[in-house]
Structure to design on (145 residues):
């Protein structure tokens, strides 16, 4: 029953109050309006949730030869606090239209397929890092006050 329908029922009770006092009144309604409202709210909710989830899905396009990290999503009873969820690096061998990606470990020749959503590009550098040393000396103090 929509709000307008309920207001009509209340108006009718107020209008015919003198005739209804002391008698039992049963209001029969079809719940089509309630079903429609429930369907509409469910449809709007699912549309909003789909938009929210789709916003969080990142498009990940990998090319053969890219270096990636693999998410380790296995359930652990006692995970270590500082242990990384990401393992790798791996090299992409082939990308399939279904979203699956075939990868290989850097030091091995065994390839395996994983879901592309479990991968992210590796941002680390394989180049040697340049280190610069700066020696600090204590400044000389002047004897003047």
């Amino acid at each position: 029953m929509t709000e307008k329908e309920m207001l009509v029922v209340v108006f009718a009770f107020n209008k015919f109050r003198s005739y209804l006092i002391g008698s039992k009144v049963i209001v029969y309604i079809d719940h089509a309006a309630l079903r429609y409202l429930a369907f509409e709210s469910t449809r709007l909710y699912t549309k909003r949730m789909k938009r929210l989830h789709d916003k969080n899905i990142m498009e990940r396009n990998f090319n053969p030869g890219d270096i990636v990290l693999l998410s380790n999503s296995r359930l652990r009873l006692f995970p270590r606090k500082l242990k990384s969820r990401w393992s790798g690096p791996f090299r992409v061998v082939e990308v399939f239209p279904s979203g699956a990606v075939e990868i290989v470990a850097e030091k091995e020749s065994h390839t395996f397929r994983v879901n592309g959503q479990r991968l992210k590009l590796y941002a680390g550098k394989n180049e040697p890092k340049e280190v610069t040393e700066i020696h600090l000396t204590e400044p000389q103090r002047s004897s003047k006050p």
Q: What stands out?
A: The chain has a mean pLDDT of 80. The first helix runs from residue 3 to 15. The longest strand covers residues 86-95.
